[in-house]
Fold:
Amino acid sequence: MSRTEAFEELRPLLFSISYRILGSVSEAEDAVQEAWLRFAASPEQPRSARAFLSATVTRISIDVLRSARVRREEYVGPWLPEPLLADPYEDPERSAELADSVSMAALLLLERLSPLERAVFVLREVFDFSFPEVASAVGRTEAACRQLAVRARRHMAAGRPRFEADRKEREELASRFFDALREGDLAGLQGLLAADVSMVGDGGGKAPQLARAIVGAENVARLLASVFPQMGRVEVMFEPHELNGQPGAIFRDRDGKVLHTLALEVLDGQIQAIRLVINPDKLGHMGPVADAWAVDREVRQARRSS
Structure:
């Protein structure tokens, strides 16, 4: 097998590792490309392409995350991961771990870890790398990696909810939510939301966004029921679509350009969180991006004239 063939076979795994460490599609793609350049330039054929490339993309991702954390401290408003339409890596034996680890909720929990803890957790707990493999990838001893893994597991377990919804339950609840959203059904929306539901939007200062998180079933339902019907009046449409392995939707303007995404977190039979990614810098991998400011002006005008 040539180096190119070996790399292409491993590309889905490399991207999936990097995305979980970085929470960014574009940065993960760049990290994978850099790993390829280093692999191609290696004077000798590595004994294991998988070991070499996974270690390389992990180290690149750790370096990128360290610099990204400085930028995220100055980020305007709440920061959310870039939405992922589909995880390219599949492993039937670890499908549950893979799906859970790519959700918005899990990625936000991973943000609490140090870059090394995050990398160790991803390699060990998500992709089941052995500790010798993890140690080689992150450049630490096996003993140090075991300690990092223990700390990471403790932090992740503390932030995880007690009850989780199965896939069918999530899909059924999401379908009812989007039906109520289309109709502007206030009561229907409120009945699907947890009492302490929160709705947060990530515009990064580059698109209209919520000034703060909206909390509480009544508050969130009222906002949804008032705004989204007005968006329909200016021909904003949405298509339900799985995002980060969870129910969600992609919103588009009248020209079909991506306006924003909406992801639902469903637990214990209710919607616990609604997360909107509006920052155009985080939507480009999904296609042409709409002018959110222009759409916002149209919506405001529609509300005034109604």
Observations:
- The domain at 3-159 is CATH 1.20.140 (Butyryl-CoA Dehydrogenase, subunit A; domain 3).
- The chain is about 55% helix and 15% strand.
